[in-house]
Design brief:
Number of helices: 4
CATH superfamily: Type I PLP-dependent aspartate aminotransferase-like (Major domain)
CATH architecture: 3-Layer(aba) Sandwich
Order of helices and strands: HEHEHEHEEE
Structural class: alpha/beta
Largest sheet: 6 strands, mixed
Amino acid sequence: MGLGLVAAGYAWAPGDNLVMFAGEHWNNTFPWLALRQQGVEVRVFPLDAHQRMDPERLAQAVDPRTRLVTVSAVRHSTGYRADLKRLGRIAHDTGALFVVDSIQAAGVLPLNVEDDAIDVLASGSFTWLLGLPGTGFLYVREGVWDRIRPVMPGMFAAEDDLAALR
């Protein structure tokens, strides 16, 4: 849900692109693939021969029209742990958002959104956080909300004036 809110709420323009690795979990794939209908180019970057993510090769797929780089902190299929710090720097070097799916990491591995330059962190809480199915969280760095429109605002979308959205 969190990743879908970001995908739907970002102010995409035809010609924009996003970069992701092949073989991401469906929850970190389908929201992005759906953007093709809006003219967004979804660049799915291959893994290396050992099924690992090579940040330096990914950097070649990022350009000035890249608006977002997304990755799983830990791959669901292999357990491979992404180098979030390097990937975050690659995204930020072109002004792109760095979006991380942390469902296989949150609760079992340390995550630091500041050190790892993470703009958006999404997670279900039914895995290592031992929460109930259907629960989770979405972290959005201060200043990034200005780039994501609220698509399903609720009662906490207002600051002090309950008649106006944040």
